[in-house]
Write a structure and sequence with these properties.
Elements lengths: L6 E6 L15 H10 L4 E5 L6 E2 L7 E2 L7 H11 L3 E7 L4 H6 L32 H16 L4 E5 L11 H9 L7 H26 L4 E4 L23 E4 L10 H9 L6 E6 L14 H13 L3 E7 L8 H17 L7 E2 L3 E4 L14 H12 L4 E4 L10 E4 L7 H12 L3 E4 L7 H4 L1 E6 L5 E5 L12 E3 L4 E5 L4 E9 L16 E13 L2 E4 L3 H8 L2 H14 L15 E7 L2 E7 L4 E2 L5 E2 L6 E9 L6 E5 L3 E2 L2 E4 L2 E9 L2 E7 L4
Parallel strand pairs: 1-2, 1-10, 2-5, 3-4, 5-6, 6-7, 8-9, 9-10, 12-13, 12-14, 14-15, 15-22
Antiparallel strand pairs: 11-23, 16-19, 17-18, 17-20, 20-21, 21-22, 23-24, 24-32, 25-26, 27-31, 28-29, 28-32, 30-31
Helix pairs in contact: 1-2, 1-9, 4-6, 8-9, 10-13, 13-14
Length: about 650
């Protein structure tokens, strides 16, 4: 049995020192009753908040000025008496009190400015402290004190990184010089910030087992998909007992962040927790309440990837939970409770591994790149089972590897890809790397002469596509094919590129005719695409680009895990293995841009008579809806189990007993 329960609440409590009566209305009996109303079996409660105040009788930090009780201690005792797991929260980089009272602890940016969300003492918001100063010792001492005083099950250490720019104070710059680094190189500054974060985590993690060998540990704000695994989380995993994917779609994360990140972190051998929020927007939205359909989708999507669930809330300063909030949480968590048995211990069954385009060798990535967004949308909409990889990932578990446009192929990666293909693996690549010319059968001929230009598809990859010249609006490359490669599409040239000297109509120039330049070619089990179709789909979502990629995949992966079906593109399917069973998760919740900057899910849109075919290793002894335990009739043909689900009312799980072998 895993250590993490399925139904957690992360109870924020960042409380201004200007607010009186903190914790005055806290009642342990009411607190537990309200958590139980929400079907909650694990809660994160606050030891210290971003304002810098502690909620217990600390001798190291500063107790909130209007708190007159041991709020943390009372919460821990009440929860443990009720059988509810307790995690204690503390924070690293953001501590307003420390920032105000210890100028020597402040994070100074390389330009001399203030590090953090707020760049001025006159601007409300969080300002960074620097863990590479005495502040790091202060934080670690607080964590040791919390563990000494309270029998908590986990420590949640928030904002364990520099927010924004790296530190650029004279102490850090001179420290870099002593270590043989160049502080005037922006990339070296960024990498040194990462090194300082890791040194702090190592010190902190070393202190925790000395106090409690069984303590759960999680450092928040650190999860980053990185092309270069040395710059991501893999080298840091000794500091974590599990991973929590903080991803509130009403905040800056949006609805793409969680499915992208969970499909990367599924490749780590660790427990995952999916964190959303009860807020309409994000943290601090005291008067906002998530639509029930939205909260259902966000929690059920976590289950569909085998993750435990956490819903963020914020406790009122006087210490009372909002009963209406916990009725909403309970509406959803009651359903999670009924279904969690079919997520517990399950593992993903990906056919496809997609290389992330975030960053490059020795350089950290930033915002989610369009290649990652486009591949997520395309593959999810086509119902493929896939995960994301970094450049150090093992390719052998996947039938197909996709390397989108713009992803660097190093000599070491090229050798591993060559071995992978020679062993029967299939590859789709969005560049003409000279290191892989023997596999791809093409060389890079430089930039394509026209942007935009047109796709002239052969019948081989035109299935389901309207017979016309389809535009590609982003710059591509020319392919110089070797003898014997199969050309699947040619470039269609416009009359000219659009410039001030000559342009035509409102946008781009019409087609003059098909050129001799190939755009998509195949050599054996390798397909090269010379236009940035993943980025294009992220930008403009042209259905034809998804169809072209889908048809290329079909040539290399003729028997995907999810076969013929009648699902709309808005439905999501994941297939997981649980023991000898295959577990199929079906989701259908549609988000819309109803606010200027906010995507919203308000309604559940049922699907009826959903026909599915799932590739199975064995003929199942039973196909049933769970948790309803309603049997479905099924047939087996060509390695696929075929059945019809009468209705998917937002979320449905189907169990294929014994189908995994």
């Amino acid at each position: 049995m895993s250590s993490l329960p399925f139904r957690q609440v992360h109870l924020d409590f960042h409380t201004s020192p200007a607010i009186p009566g903190v914790g005055a209305d806290f009642d342990p009996t009411e607190f537990i009753r309200t958590l139980q109303l929400g079907h909650v079996n694990s809660v994160t409660v606050f030891a210290k908040c971003h304002h810098g105040y502690s909620y217990y009788p600390t001798k190291i930090g500063t107790v909130h000025p209007s708190l007159e009780r041991d709020l943390l201690g009372e919460m821990v005792a009440a929860c443990h008496q009720a059988g509810i797991r307790v995690c204690a929260y503390t924070t690293v980089t953001w501590d307003e009190l420390a920032w105000e009272t210890h100028p020597e602890w402040r994070h100074i940016k390389p330009d001399g400015g203030i590090g953090g969300v707020s760049n001025s003492p006159l601007k409300p918001g969080w300002k960074n402290n620097d863990m590479n100063t005495g502040y790091g010792d202060y934080v670690i001492a607080q964590i040791e004190e919390i563990i000494d005083m309270y029998d908590v099950d986990e420590i949640f250490i928030d904002i364990a990184r520099y927010i924004g720019a790296p530190p650029g104070d004279s102490q850090t710059l001179r420290q870099m010089l002593r270590e043989g680094l160049n502080p005037e190189d922006p990339n070296q500054l960024n990498l040194y910030a990462l090194e300082l974060e890791r040194r702090f985590m190592k010190r902190c993690t070393s202190a925790i087992p000395a106090k409690s060998a069984t303590m759960g540990i999680f450092y928040n704000s650190r999860l980053r998909m990185e092309y270069d695994p040395a710059l991501g989380n893999r080298p840091e995993m000794d500091n974590f007992t599990h991973l929590e994917i903080e991803s509130l779609p009403g905040g800056h994360w949006g609805y793409d962040h969680f499915p992208l990140y969970v499909r990367y972190y599924e490749t780590f051998d660790t427990e995952l927790l999916a964190m959303t929020g009860r807020f309409h927007t994000t943290w601090g939205d005291f008067g906002g309440l998530r639509n029930r359909a939205a909260l259902e989708f966000e929690c059920f999507q976590g289950l569909a990837h085998g993750a435990k669930i956490s819903i963020g809330d914020q406790l009122h300063p006087r210490g009372r939970l909002d009963e209406a909030v916990y009725r909403r949480i309970g509406e959803v968590y009651a359903q999670v409770e009924a279904r969690e048995a079919w997520a517990e211990g399950s593992v993903a069954l990906p056919d496809i591994g997609v290389m992330t385009a975030s960053g490059k060798p020795g350089v950290r990535g930033g915002e989610i790149p369009p290649q990652d967004t486009g591949s997520l949308h395309i593959l999810e909409q086509l119902k493929h089972q896939f995960v994301y990889l970094d450049s150090g990932s093992d390719f052998t578990p996947y039938s197909l590897v996709i390397i989108p446009e713009g992803v660097v192929v190093t000599p070491e990666m090229a050798e591993r890809l060559r071995s992978y293909v020679q062993a029967g693996g299939k590859l789709i690549i969005g560049s003409a790397s000279e290191l892989l010319a023997d596999l791809t059968g093409v060389e890079d001929g430089g930039p394509a002469p026209f942007t935009p230009d047109y796709l002239m598809l052969s019948d081989e990859i035109a299935q389901g596509i309207e017979p016309m010249a389809h535009s590609c609006e982003l710059p591509g490359i020319r392919l110089l094919p070797q003898a014997g490669v199969e050309v699947l599409a040619y470039a269609g040239d416009p009359y000219f590129n659009r410039t001030w000297e000559h342009f035509c109509s409102h946008q781009y120039t019409p087609l003059e005719g098909q050129s001799d330049d190939p755009v998509i070619v195949q050599k054996g089990g390798v397909i090269t695409i010379a236009r940035p179709l993943f980025s294009e789909y992220a930008q403009s979502a042209k259905r034809v680009h998804k169809q072209v990629i889908g048809n290329c995949i079909n040539r290399l992966l003729p028997q995907p895990r999810v076969g013929v079906n009648n699902l709309p593109s808005t439905a999501i399917v994941t297939v997981r293995q649980q023991g000898a069973d295959l577990i199929v998760h079906l989701l259908h919740y549609v988000h819309q841009r109803r606010g200027k900057i906010l995507d919203v899910i308000e309604d559940v849109l049922p699907l009826y008579n959903v026909q599915l075919s799932i590739r199975a290793e064995q003929i199942p002894s039973l196909v049933e809806l769970v948790p309803e335990h309603e049997s479905l009739t099924f047939t087996q043909d060509g390695g696929y189990v075929r059945f019809t689900v009468p209705v998917v009312n937002g979320y449905q799980i189907v169990r294929l007993a014994g189908a995994a072998g």
